[in-house]
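Many introductory courses stop at the sequence. We go one step further.
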Amino acid sequence: MNHEAFVQSRLDLVVRSTEIDVNGHVNNAKYLEYLEWGREDFYEQGSLPYDVLLGLGLITVTANININYRKEAKQNDLLTVITRPGRIGNTSFTLEQTIINTTMDLLVADASVTLVMVDATTRKAVPVPNVIRTFFV
């Protein structure tokens, strides 16, 4: 697989009524879902969807999410989740993510997500393979 031209993914979404909490804005837990959707899009845009990774006998496991909630988002706001490579180690890597409210041109949240590469059978950490490392050049 050639990932050389791939730098980041951008996933657009609309805030739905079911994502709003009693305070009238997006519930904090929903942002974690938005980030997950962004990571899935990142892998797909990089020609490495889940089934391909699993076919290699590998999965990624989220080990840490450090999120900063910057501004509130409300129903019908248009959001963009931007996901790009961060750092890479031996068995883990980070993806840097931002959520932009494109309706108001505001940074809503930013996060650094640490993922661990795991053997799908043994469930043990393994070195990050080259198909992932190519994202980090």
